[in-house]
Amino acid sequence: MLAAERSKADIDSHLESFIQRKFCSIVVSNSLYADPIRDRFWNLLNQYKEIASGGGYKNNVGEPVKDKLEFIKGYKFNIAFENSMVSGYTTEKIIEPCIVNTVPIYWGNRLVAKDFNPEAFIDISDFDSLDRAVDYVIKVDNDPELYTSYLKANLLNRYPYLDYEEIISNFFNNIIDNGMPVFRTKYGRVGIFLKEIENIKEPTSNNIFKKIFKKFGAVLDN
User: What parts of the sequence cross the membrane (predicted)?
Assistant: First the structure.
């Protein structure tokens, strides 16, 4: 089974605790170069319930958190906005919440639904105003069945004629074989992300990302 498939058994066995979690989190280092839409959305949603901010941006938990995944898994939702809207460009922001069975509230890549299942996250771009987007998040927060449907949805779109693991492996093999300059995964955001994934103890449904990042790191470190 592709590890992008969520394990419904895992979700069901932890369902009550998932639903009872605190409301929403965000972890952003700063907002200096980010689109102001994040500020506007944060201000609107925060009027409903307080959003826990674990980064340098609007921090209200005492200090920046040391373990992002450990922090966001304690919340039902995570605000996962890109710094800007660039079609075809998606970062790890949408993946991280799903690894710990938290629903991403996403904004950024207009084409994100080509790769990621729109039933697994809330895309702010689907709404004609931020007010309506906030209203929908509130609706999901108050509807356990609707919220659970997001948790159980597979993050990656499934196309039966594609072998995702082979495609991804070929992609990375091409980088290595051609000797292209790449970053080493012991450092930077991907290196930190690898360490965070290794520390996850509870069952998770998106093991494909663990496998990909582990393989990527192993290849680049050789």
Answer: none
> Closest Cα to residue 215, out of 192, 194, 188, 189?
194
Instruction: Tell whether the torsion through CA atoms of 211, 217, 220 and 222 is positive or negative.
Output: negative
pTM, rounded to two decimals: 0.71
- Beta strand 122-123 with 103-107: parallel, antiparallel or unpaired? parallel
- Torsion angle, alpha carbons of 150, 151, 157, 161, to 10: -130
Domain spanning 8-152: CATH superfamily: Glycosyl transferase family 10, C-terminal domain (3.40.50.11660)
- When pLDDT is cut at 50, 70 and 90, the band that residue 144 belongs to is very high
The neighbour count for residue 40, using CB atoms within 10 Å, is: 11
Tens of pLDDT, residues 99-129: 899 999 999 999 999 889 999 999 999 999 9
In the chain, domain spans = 8-152, 164-221
Residue 213, sorted as left (phi over 0), alpha (psi -120 to 50) or beta, turns out to be alpha
How many C-beta neighbours within 10 Å does residue 95 have?
Answer: 21
What would the two tokens of residue 22 be? Answer: 């605190």
The full length of the chain comes to 222
Phi, psi of 123 (to 5 degrees): -100, 115
* Terminal alpha carbon distance of the chain: 28
Find out whether 92 and 99 touch, Cβ atoms under 8 Å: no
| Ordered alpha helix ranges (H), 80-163 | 95-99, 130-141, 144-152
